[in-house]
Design brief:
alpha+beta; 2 domains; 6 strands; 56% helix
Length: 248
């Protein structure tokens, strides 16, 4: 028989403890965040360093040849992917479902965003491009809204909170049925969409099952108060249940 090494035994013990410590909180996480916390931090820092290298190279080359700064258009998707785990660990991103997050969320305002490329890799890769992926993504968004409702009901978030987002994915009729008010997206939100066009393009194409350019120039700013969201709980639950049989 092989002798059990003390160090290996400690690793196994730590992994078991970490599993049970995080088990309650993994419902709304992708597989990356089901790892022990120490591994998440190590991998997040390594990804951060990886993400900084191209930026430093572009800046260095740009000093002598400014045309290199145009490469930042390509760098943005790399940076978004690389920084996502760290942003989640330090609280810049707060996930309400595997594919719905709040950016710098606080008790006054929650800026909702759909999950990015990192989340697509860990969460959406098992779904077939087209209708299946699009419906599952919508379900994750609905689940995220239901999680927000739960947090408001439990007084973790005040009902007065303003919840906003920029939508090019949902139809206006769907957003109206969910209680959101729509208005023309301001310049800041439009610039943000154009900066992230590469990611938006391939993710939107996957949801459509073919190469499709998202109509970000027609994007709307959607907003709803916590109180109004609570009033729409039944509508969101019904819509979510209608879609659930497709993913049992």
């Amino acid at each position: 028989m092989h002798e059990v090494q003390p160090f290996n035994f400690l690793i196994v013990t730590y992994s078991i403890i970490a599993y049970f410590e995080t088990k309650k909180s993994i419902t709304y996480m992708n597989d990356f965040y089901k790892q022990p916390k120490i591994l998440q931090w190590i991998e997040a820092i390594l990804l951060l360093l990886f993400g900084f290298l191209p930026a430093f190279t572009i800046i260095e080359k740009g000093y002598s040849q400014p045309i290199f700064y145009l490469l930042f258009i390509i760098y943005v998707p790399i940076g978004q992917f690389a920084f996502t785990p760290l942003f989640r660990l330090i609280g810049v991103y707060k996930y309400y479902s595997p594919m719905l997050l709040g950016y710098m969320a606080n008790n006054l305002q929650i800026d909702l965003h759909s999950g990015g490329s990192f989340d697509y890799l860990f969460v959406m890769r098992k779904y077939k491009a087209g209708t299946q992926l699009r419906n599952r993504l919508m379900m994750y968004h609905l689940e995220g809204l239901l999680k927000l409702i739960q947090l408001i009901e439990e007084k973790h978030i005040p009902a007065s909170v303003n919840i906003i987002g920029t939508s090019y994915f949902f139809k206006e009729r769907t957003l109206n049925n969910l209680g959101f008010q729509l208005e023309k997206a301001n310049l800041f939100y439009r610039i943000n969409l154009y900066i992230n066009f590469i990611d938006l393009f391939w993710m939107y194409s996957l949801s459509k099952g073919k190469l499709t350019i998202p109509k970000i120039w027609n994007a709307k700013k959607a907003s709803i108060t916590g109180t109004r969201l609570l009033e729409k709980k039944d509508v969101i639950e019904i819509l979510n249940k209608r879609m659930s049989p497709n993913f049992k």
